[in-house]
Amino acid sequence: MATDAVTAVAETVQKVGINVDELVTRFSAVDYVVFALLLAISLGIGLYYGLCHSKEMADTEGYLLGGRQMGTFPAAMSLIASFMSAITLLGTPAEVYQNGTQYWLIGFSYFLVTPAAAYLYMPIFFDLRVISAYEYLELRFSKTIRVLGGAIFCIQMAIYMAIVVYAPSLALSQVTGINVYLSVCVIFFVCIIYTTLGGMKAVLWTDTVQVIIMFGAIMAVIIKGSIDVGGFDVVWQTAVNGDRIEFFNFDPSPGVRHTVWTLVIGGYFTWITIYGVNQAQVQRYLCVSTKRKAAAAIWINCFGLFALLTICGYAGLVIYAKYEHCDPLTSKSVSTPDQLFPLFVMDTMGQIPGVPGLFVAGIFSGALSTVSSGINSLSAITVEDFIKPFTSRDISSEKQAKWSKWLAIGLAALSIFGMVGGPLLGLFTLGMFFPWANHIGALVGTFSGLIVIFWVGVGFQIEKALGRIHLTKLPTSIDDCPRFNVSEIMTTTTLAPSTTTVPTPTEDPGDALGIYYLSYMYYSALASSVVVIVGMLVSFATGTRDPRKMDPRLIVPLGTRLGCCLPERWRSVLNFHVGEEFDAEDIDGLEMKKAPPPSNGHHHDPGHENYAGPQLRSYTELDSDR
Prior knowledge:
By secondary structure, the protein is mainly α. It contains 22 helices and 2 strands.
């Protein structure tokens, strides 16, 4: 029987596109020094707080909340840094390059999210003086719901951290030559060190430095890039000619990926999930001393996010102006869209020593800030929601702080991700805005939301892989791509004669189920709506709570917050009469935590006692006693 013959021959091959191998050589020793300087600054801040201010972090509040005495500015910068990850910095320019400026309208959702987070969600957590946002769920529902919420967050944040580090590391490695595994290990090592040693104070100040580096690096790149292609007018006109300028797509269909509605309405639900109830952000609100300062930090964060979105979006237009007639994706110069921005930097500024290193430092600043926030928030959740509630004896604040430090090391290795932000938003919204909801409704609603969103999200990916769903891109060209020669090992295979021909199937894949076409921007809205609707239906079926007997600290007073110009009667209606018959003596057994007395030079402001905590007994437990 004849066999196949394989022959390897070295040949010179002409390729069309950008010679990435040549660009990689431009990343010099100076660039490595610039990149290393960022890591050194981050480590230095952690060492400073860990060694020089160790007494201030001897207890839980000092370590996890900075003693609740951090300034508005570092808190605001940390809010920006926490979820403006390296994926965002690379993904936004790629999105605008491929699909145009419509995505920029998501920035208007920030101005809806900010007042909701600052005046509806944040005051609940602040008044309760919690450390973990999920303490609220035990107070409002039960310990089971608290553990469920905390577990969902841990899974979500751990996976998100892995993607935030690995994805940009992979993109940068293929364009700059930085080893992907080395960069991943270095980022996690640096984050673990400064987060473990310096606690929340180190995290906030390193985030501040990293935000400045992010803005500075991207601004330097787009200014130089704009000048190279002829200025802003040329960038804009090129985008117009290439159909990249679009802002007013009002198509009401929820299946259209990006429209005004999906970006503003869907964007609101996506971002309120982060800024309303996410532990990493809530922890930053609680680092400042007053609600006014927390609200100011959220507003500063809003304008900072909008500015960063605009800068990254404009970067996408600059990249398009550069590669209008030589698309790196079509020419196979790069394999994924998130490599476009690094390619552009190396192509236009790679010959300037230090600039590629500054860009890499800016991108990895996004990764560092997200990972440090994740490690710190996961430490808080684990101690507050998984250790303390299930420990019969009291745990000293000093011991809790030590556990948090060790957990900061261990949890950094568990990095995985999940589509669970929407169900968590729905769970908190059910508790804060619907006083009739009970713990059974919360439990069933949360699982219902998880099932529905995973069905839709996973189903979309399957249908896309099967070819039933196609995502369209705007046209590109490779007409003016340069040509270059490379030497490659060509493998030639001589096939043995065969008398059998296997036909290639060409069956029509058919159409996907309609729900799978839903824009991803609506995922959080869908999941949170399912949680609220199912939660309320189950609550009414199993026995609702009486709003009049509820602790008013656990419910958002809509009438007070939204109806300042309404008559008193209407304000009372919108407040659902919450707490009108509430008697604090009815909740004996709800042990009130007080701020620890000043010790070791660590001062706590009077009047800022922590009224909530894991010792508090939920309404479900109190009902069972009666």
